[in-house]
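Progress against Task 2.4 (sequence-to-structure conversion) is shown through the following example record, which the project officer requested during the mid-term review.
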Amino acid sequence: MHYRIVIVGGGSAGVSVAARLRRAGEDDVAIVDPAPWHWYQPLWTLVGAGVVPIGATRRHQAKVVPRAVAQIRDAVVELLPDARQVVTAAGARIGYDVLVVCPGLELAFDAVPGLAEAMATPKATTNYTPQLAPKTFELVRRFRGGRALYCAPGSPIKCPGAPQKAAYLACDHWGRHGVLSDAEVTYATGAGGIFGVPEFARVLEGVVKRYGIVTRFSSELVEVDPESSRATLETSGPEGTSRVGIDYDLLWAAPPQRAPAFVRDSPLGGPQPYGWVPVDRHSLRHVAYPDIFALGDVCDAPTSKTGAAVRAQAPVVVANILDVLAGKEPAARYDGYAACPFTTAYGKMLLAEFDYSLSPHPTVPFIDTQRERRDMWLLKRYGLPAFYWNLMLHGIG
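Structure tokens generated for the chain above:
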């Protein structure tokens, strides 16, 4: 098989790029992805809060891929950029003129000893899988006090605000049901602060204070003992590193994340152990292969791995693909735009929009998004999902 443009990955990035290419008149496009379902993952925060059922966040993959785009329902196992080929699990070799790499990322539960085993117990959960997100609310609902530990790695993860959002919504729930006063809530993150953009960090610091959350910065979750319900944190500081064990009654953890194995073990992958695809931060073109572009969670563009980033990246990638196919240098530029919608309570949200400069980059006119707002919650719950299914996946907006 050979296609003019091959897209590896049928998530938000792959489908958005395919739709925009079709709108631009490209009729020889293929998406390679074995997944039967397409998930709108940003709503998993609200699944974990008991607001949205998990079934409302998925649709059949076949129904979201644009018409006239070839769907190759197979897993990629090897990338051969020098031969301009993609190899699938079934043994197919698919040739291309231009390759788009956007398979998302891999959850590395195995990177923290005991973490995967803990997720099978009735005390630990996460919102990062469709199987576990509903469990989050069950644990929050049954919690009657004790130690609740929320953990986030310092390395890049998709939706880096997700651990905070889960903690805030849990605290709000417990506050409404008279449980928060009996809870000791800790937020531990490998990052050096609550958020990298000062204007939004100040608001989030107020949220943390409001709920009485104890913060541990530069603290990585390095081990979990599910039998004793004990987590080990490693904290880095000027005097070196130290470890502390924390007993928990509820553990919510974002696992470390990395590029899929077929990416990080290929010539396209970047430094281990993460293997993010190295791209020019503005053109999103691979640094070594001019016929390859990468976007979304898998690329190493120094911005947050969010759906909002994909929305800004997709038109840049499509414009630059068309330039390359026309024999021109890519002219479109991505400025690092991303957004983190922080659900700070039931009915309240802070929309943090920023770019490579880590300065606020508001896109909603006439609204002060640097504070918690009810209308932003409605945008999260209803507006953004409608935009995603009806516009973004169709190459619009």
